[in-house]
Amino acid sequence: MAQIGSESTTTTSTTSSTTMMTGPAAPPPPPPMFVPPSGPGIKYKHAPLPPKPPVLDEEARAKLVVGGRADSGMVQVNKADPQWLSKTIEHSKQAKVRKWAAVETVASQVPRIDFADATPFALTSQFSQNRTSNATAESDVSLLEAKPVPWSTASALGLSHAGAGGVYFIQFPDKSVVVVKGSQTTPQEFLAFHLAALLGADAIRVPWMRVVDLGSNEHVAIQQAIRKYLDPVAHAGLEKSASRPFLIVMEFVPGSSVESMTAADMKRLFHGDNVRVTEVNTTAVITDAGAAPQPIDLSSGSPSGSPRSSSNNISSSNSNSNSHSSNNTSSNAALPADAEDISQVTTVSVDQPLSPRGKELLEALGRVVTFDMWINNWDRFPCVWDNEGNPNNVLVVDHSGPEADLCAIDQMVTCLDPRNFAAALDAYKTNVRNFLVELRGWRKGEVKLTDTNLGRLRSSIELCCGYSLTEDELSFVRRGILDMAETISTVSDQEIRAKVSHIKTCIAVDWENTWSIACNSINEDHLLGLRDVFAEVCS
Predict the structure, then answer these.
(1) pTM to 2 decimals?
(2) How high is the pLDDT of residue 45?
(3) Bias regions of kind Pro residues — which residues (predicted)?
């Protein structure tokens, strides 16, 4: 043993002398890329660590922007300051503004994606969300053969303003687009996808996805495609999500967020193209002292001297527009000579019946609400949660066409483990039960749906795009909520347990047990318990 030690010492000394004589030694070659061998039952729990970013001096750190803020860490909070909370909130707002500015800066430097011409890349031609009667240890959608993505041919990169670094849109020369997402909650999002696929495409539409782990060649190829446009140092805050050990490769859905749509767009979505909003100018005239004022509809003609506003008259040129008035006086009639003008101009929205597709879309909206209640996905519609919601997590696909559809995005399973949060889970189930019982017992004309928790959904959408769902429209949302509750109530224990088991075991390379730790928050008892609530209400 001593001899071995002395040989090692001698070798080290020789190497050191050589270094002093010939200058600094060349840097060692990079380690070979880790490629796990294939084979059943092979699991790797420790893949090579991702490369660390270079050490920067103080000046470089001051100039570096990470996620929109200086790379000096979070703001230091002095809770002794009575205004610490308001200062923290203001700092958060400013950080978000800087983050969006960073996205815009980078987006202006890389080839932009023309989303108007973008098409979804076909990740698999076999995918269909058709529920099967037999549950297996693996999800049905996981058995589908994924089509290879030509990452090396990426021609443009898009960044999400919402996530500001977590979501990447990668386009290829044929204009097709793939979405890549790096998230800390990948297992929970992947389980939400599989549960939606279990219910079927007729119940809820979600983007198809798969997970790429650190040990695969594809993980390296995705990073190279993103780093073609984002520098790991200059754009560290926007690029860092691509370095996560697990990446979601997701179907691109060419749709519009609710926030990007106008109230007129939403009305046409539910009522069809024949919807017209017509400004009706009603002039009241008195022809003699004893007569009551009689309105004259002036929506398509303007007698001399009558008040008239045309700036918002959307469809006055359409001869088929319907105007509602208390009489059938011609709109071209002139005011009598002895009439006293006491006119007022009012705007009337001409209601059209819901289109057949509009009714289906409203029911689809309701099914999304119930799915969210099942998985406790609180970041969409605040029916049973105390927040403002985020309706932008529903995309409207082809909103101006006859095949309009809704696609739910960015959902995740948030389980309340009964072993640790029994009281919270019981309270949550009570909220869900009371909400469903209230809707199930609703009778038209007795209680307004806007006075139920559906009024919170209505307010959330109204705050987002200015459109207020009517009682008639909410009645179809209600129908979708109850239909989805009945669908989920038929899911078996075996199906739920199989999905959870698949998510926990589907990763080949679990870097530093990251996946396993994240899966600890997934509890099938939560899903089973909410399923039972649905079954109880629907029985």
Answers:
(1) 0.69
(2) 34
(3) 25-39
